[in-house]
Amino acid sequence: MEKIIVLTGAGISAESGLKTFRDSDGLWEGYNIEDVATPQAWQRDPVLVQNFYNERRKSVIEAEPNAAHFALARLQEKFNVTIITQNIDDLHERAGSNDVLHLHGLITRSRSSIDPKLTYPIEGWELRMDEKCELGSPLRPHVVWFGEDVPMISKAAQLCTTADLFILVGTSLAVYPAAGLVDYVPFDAPKYIVDPNIPTVGSTNNLYKIPEKATTGVVKLANELMA
């Protein structure tokens, strides 16, 4: 069974109504990234950060997977599919994808403030400031912030080396280290990019560009691959 590696970014979730992580004005839902998505922000004003992610979590829970999420899940009928996502939502899983690696964490889980390996499910959408991990530290969102290590990046890079076929969906390849993952894909493996604005990639061998939004481009590609 052929191995398909899919790397998804904010563009696929945007069509489910979730705002992209960094809009063109540099803000996320009207907030400066530095005020809500850094370890320093948590140290400075944890209540602001916690409330911000509570609202984002509520939006994620209310959102529904779109046609692109379901099309990627359908590929599992014929291929061995692993999705590597930069997104912190769970829309891939809710669409039926069984093998999803979250590079930047998962907003529906919490984690210890002092040990990132300690993560916990969140009941509902609200994480309270008085909730603590087993070590006694306050629970924070299970999200990788700017300035923090991306613990899953090595596993993601290794997975990319196994790709018989690679699909890139809804990402500008502007955020590192995730943007460098395409460089680990075997040179001769077919590479498909689905995005209205095709990003520049280093390896252009066997590169196929689909300049469409995810809900149309991914569905077309999936139908072609499943035929």
Task: Pick out the low-confidence regions.
Answer: none
Specify the biggest β-sheet: 6 strands, parallel
| Number of distinct beta strands | 11
User: Rg to the nearest angstrom?
Assistant: 18 Å
Q: Examine the coordinates and then state which fold CATH places here, giving the name of the CATH topology of the largest domain.
A: Rossmann fold
Number of helices: 8
Characterization of the model:
With about 230 residues, the protein is α/β, with parallel strands linked by helices. The protein has two domains: about 1-20 and about 65-105 and about 150-225, TPP-binding domain (Rossmann fold, 3-Layer(aba) Sandwich), CATH 3.40.50; about 20-60 and about 110-145, SIR2/SIRT2 'Small Domain', CATH 3.30.1600. The protein is built from eight helices and eleven strands. Strands 5-4-1-9-10-11 form a six-stranded parallel β-sheet. Helix 5 runs parallel beside helix 8. The longest helix is centred in the first third of the chain and has 17 residues, at about 45-60. It starts with a strand and ends with a helix. The model has no long low-confidence stretch (mean pLDDT about 90).
Outline:
The protein contains 8 helices and 11 strands. By secondary structure, the chain is α/β, with parallel strands linked by helices.
